[in-house]
Amino acid sequence: MAAPQPVSARRTANDLRLGESATVCCLKDPQMALKLLEMGCIPGTQVRLTGRAPLGDPLMLVLGDEEYTLSLRVSEAITIQLKD
Amino acid sequence: MAGVIQDVQPAVPQPGTGGAAPLAERLPRLALIGNPNSGKTSLFNQLTGLNQKVGNFPGVTVDRKTGVAQLGGQRRAEVVDLPGTYSLYPKSLDERVIADLLYNPLSPDYPDFVVVTVDASNLRRSLLLFSQLADLGLPAILALNMTDVAAERGIQLDVVALERELGVPVVPMNARKGVGLAALRIVMADRLAARPPAGRFWQPGAELRPLLEAIRQHFGLPNDYLALHYAHQFRQLHFLSEEDRTYLASLTEQYAFDSTAQQAAETVGRYASINELLLEVVTVTRTERREPASNRIDKVLTHRVFGYLIFLAILFLLFQAIFAWAQYPMDLIDQGISALSAAIQARFHGPLVRLLTEGVIAGLGGVLIFIPQIALLFAFLAVLEETGYMARVTFLMDKLMRPFGLSGKSVVPLISGLACAVPAIMGARTIESWKDRMLTIFVTPLMSCSARIPVYTVLVALVVPDESWLGIFNMRGLVLMGLYLLGLSSALLSALLLKTVLKARERSYFIMEFPVYRWPRWKNVGLTIVEKVKTFVLQAGKVIVAISVLLWVLASYGPGTRQEQAAAQVQQQAAARRWSAAETERREASARLETSYAGTFGHIIEPAIRPLGFDWKIGISLLTSFAAREVFVGTMSTIYSVGQDADLGTVQQKLASERDAQGQPFFTPVRALSLLVFYVFAMQCMSTLAVTYRETKSWRWPLGQLVYMTGLAYAASLLVWQVFS
Fold first, then answer.
1. Does any CB of chain B come closer than 8 Å to the CB of residue A29?
2. For the Ferrous iron transporter FeoA-like domain, which residue ranges apply (chain A) (predicted)?
3. What are the distances in angstroms from CA A70 to CA B128, B391, B443?
4. Closest Cα to residue A35, out of B510, B133, B430?
5. DSSP helix/strand/coil, B515
6. Residue A26's closest CA among A51, A5, A52, A54?
7. What is the pLDDT of residue B25?
């Protein structure tokens, strides 16, 4: 799960535009990673941002092509780093 | 202990369950386990119907739902419903129950086999949990649920191949509609549950062997994977002794066991083998991709304007239901109780009859009267939960609640607190974070619960005129709303205060799955209502009836001969001043009450509550309603009906006719307001304190609530009375 380049350079799930898809590269926070992994957010999975709560937080991510939706806070979404 | 996990032979006693009970009577026991939203609850309800019991798992406070399922033929089985979870590594208190149950073959609840519900439209993630259970070596049946949703999405599953790959029976079904249930019953009745091949999905790395070998030897465990879970979770396993934990702590330290890294590696490894397996089993035919209906509904229901408007509208409807619709059945219950009391008093006389009617039956009425409100509230909550809307409420409200140290998940318990803090505090269990959960539990009793309604309505109607303001708003309605807002804002501000004091114990997660929108299953809604009403009647009901009886005794008898002396004095005065018989009787009853135990209590605390504008009669009510707020009205009516003619109409009239020393109405608006404010804040509910203790496992929390809320109430009432009177 080590990032090959400086951590800050990577985009995270929070940087996605509404409706944009990307592939999960790595999970930054080990504790959070355990929770994300068991909920199906594995490196290599496609994620798509489908919505944000009216106040910008939390956000809605659709995972993979199985079309199920996770709701998570910005503080949790920034631990999901994306492939370029 | 070896051989404990064997093929299913329910007639053979398992260790820990045999002995006391005759062998033939022991039903085979199965545990239902699955992801949240995988249809587990629907399946449990389908299997057991009204045949359910709610208890507690030993040592913890998690609800333990069990039921007896009729399996076809004469066969039956006991079903234990386990909390929904994504893996066997618990992330919340609820989930810890699973580990305690499944890792301890000596547990009295240890199942003969497990039925794993998986979501067919989401097989990869669902199989993660199954794969862990399989590697533990538990005999299992796979209930392949939501096949309809999968078919809609163009997912085809080869059930025969899945069965072959997993090594357990697979039953395709749709639990909500009851499809496939007959097949599942047959599979369960014939005990076809099979033990999957060990280590089929994943095996611990070679570097862990020595550690796992040591644990297996020490505890006599049947496989490495179970030993691995001991290494991961020994701190949370209730059935281990202190020495066992110390042993495991030193062992894991000696082998430098890194729990987090191992778990991550295991999960990734499992997904790899599940992906491989699914290649054989799943084919997806992509029809033209349409945006799923759920996503389109979400665009409206979580919209920045419509989202909140719709939530407000639903809340409004909920309040209408609790306040207006519930009124009809409540009136019926009220009339029924009065008629029963009157009928008994018309036929029989004597102290025992008075105990029965004024104590027991009056108390029962006080319990039954709340059933319509509780039933309606939980009908609403169950429908919101069933349809998947509740998750959206959490989503909408999270950012708003966070400044106060609460999370979106606190919204549901807080709203439930409007009906009753007891189930609301129990509902806070879904909050994984310890700190968020404690904050929610602590402040929930400040929400104005339905037990305050009688106090509010009686006092508001007493002093606020039934007039409209600006021609539209009913004054009484406005004051009532003000009281609710006062409760809400005090709950939020108290959370803010406590947030700064309390330190978080563990990592908190907000992340959750959004269930797809579905029509509610009315059977599930109905069963929720039955369960909640039963819990209320049996738990709070006992306290209320007991207090009602105690109260009657306290108000009817007094210490020593003081009552008799007071009565004799009244008789003397009556003779001297030529009072009428009725006047004498009224004064004597009043004197008897003042010298009763209750009156003595009231007089003792009067100096403490006089600065709030309260007299000894209110003092009596405060003391008795300390056990449960709704007792206030009952006490007032008892005090005044005992003190005056027996049937003087409603409590309101009695209160309105009360005069102070100067002959002015006693209940002035300011005095009533002081009392109302007291009831908004005061922790006047023994049941809530008891449930807080149960939920927090510490007296610190209920005592904290008691001191904090009573202090707040005293200060607020003092302010009102001193400033405005």
1. no
2. 11-84
3. 17, 10, 29
4. B510
5. coil
6. A5
7. 63
Rounded to two decimals, what is the model's pTM? 0.79
B513: distance to nearest CA of chain A, Å?
4
Confidence of residue B10 (pLDDT cuts 50, 70, 90): very low
Determine contact, residues B628/B682, Cβ cutoff 8 Å.
Answer: no
CA angle B279, B284, B289 (to 5 degrees): 145
Which residue intervals of chain B bear CATH 3.40.50.300?
Answer: 23-189
Cβ distance of B122 and A68 shorter than 8 Å: yes
Class of domain B23-189: alpha beta
Contacts of A78 in chain B (CB under 8 A): none
Looking from the CA of B447 toward its CB, the CA atoms found within 13 Å total 26
| Whole-angstrom distance, CA of residue B328 vs CA of residue B314 | 21
Residues A51-81 pLDDT 10s: 898 888 899 999 887 668 899 999 999 999 9
Q: Which of A25, A26, A27, A68 to mutate to test the interface with B (most CBs of B within 10 A)?
A: A68
- Taking only the tens place, the pLDDT of each residue in B683-708 is 988 778 877 887 787 889 999 999 99
CATH number at residue A42: 2.30.30.90
Q: Is residue A72 domain-resident?
A: yes
Is the Cβ of A30 closer than 8 Å to some Cβ of chain B?
Answer: yes
Count Cβ atoms below 10 Å from residue B268 Cβ, excluding itself.
16
In a domain, A1, yes or no: no
**Residues 146-165 (B) with a CB less than 8 A from some CB of A:** 153
Q: Compare CB distances from A72 to B292, B305, B510 and report the shortest one's residue.
A: B510
Instruction: Give the bridge partners for B659, in sequence order.
Output: B665
Cβ-Cβ contacts under 8 Å, A66 against chain B: 121-122, 124-125
Quote the minimal CA–CA distance from B94 to chain A in Å. Answer: 15
Closest residue in chain B to residue A76, using alpha carbons only: B511
Helix and strand numbers (H, E) in chain B are 32, 12
Q: Which tokens in the block code for residue B265? A: 């590696």
Please tell me the distance in Å from B495's CA to the nearest CA on chain A.
Answer: 20
A19 lies in a domain?
A: yes
Contact B634, B362 (CB under 8 A): yes
For residue A12, the enclosing domain spans 7-82
Whether A77 maps to a domain, the answer reads yes
pLDDT digits (tens, 9 = 90+) for B171-209: 999 988 888 888 888 888 877 777 887 778 898 988 999
- Relative to beta strand B113-119, strand B75-81 is unpaired
* CB atoms B267 and A36 under 8 Å: no
Chain A CB within 8 Å of residue B84 CB: no
